[in-house]
Specification:
The protein is an alpha+beta fold and about 160 residues long. It contains three helices and seven strands, in the order αββββαβαββ. Pfam families: Ribonuc_L-PSP (PF01042).
Length: about 160
């Protein structure tokens, strides 16, 4: 695996077909990242590559666990891309704090944590020890644009 956060980030992005330099558009009257001192709040990101949400549907229904985990990786990569744009480098992230993973769940699906594990593992692989975080995973009936997963996170920037 690559040595730097930037190299690891680019490697993971390439593996899922996400161009980290693509525009990440905001679809409403809000900001993708809000910074308050050293705290950064990243708004919910769905598994969108370019202008297309690439994983849609209910997990445990038309979307299986492995595909939902891919969706979680794409969504958290978008969060990291937004942090990188805000700070200029992922090296300026001192610590991931919390992550909330929303999983569009079919009736009876109870593996929301396993979907979220894919995003958590990617954060640790890219960010090293700074990737450790608190996490909540929630099953929901619907998500924007029919997405299977949405992820929001909070991080702390270096002083």
């Amino acid at each position: 695996m690559a040595e730097t956060r930037a190299e690891r980030f680019l490697q993971h992005a390439a593996a899922v077909g996400f161009d980290v330099d693509d525009e990440i558009r905001v679809g409403g009257n809000y900001q993708a990242v809000v910074r308050d001192g050293h705290l950064l709040y990243v708004s919910g990101q769905v598994p969108r590559i370019g202008s297309e949400v690439v994983v849609k549907g209910a997990v445990g229904g038309e979307v299986d666990l492995a595909v939902a985990q891919r969706a979680a990786r794409i969504a958290v990569l978008r969060c990291l891309a937004l942090l990188r744009r805000e700070l200029g480098s992922l090296d300026r992230v001192a610590r991931m704090l919390t992550m909330t993973v929303y999983v569009r769940s079919a009736a009876g699906f109870t593996q929301q944590s396993e979907v979220a594990d894919a995003a958590s593992e990617l954060l640790l692989q890219v960010m090293g020890d700074a990737g450790h975080h608190a996490r909540t995973s929630v099953g929901v009936a619907e998500l924007p644009k029919g997405a299977a997963v949405e992820i929001a996170l909070q991080a702390r920037a270096e002083s």
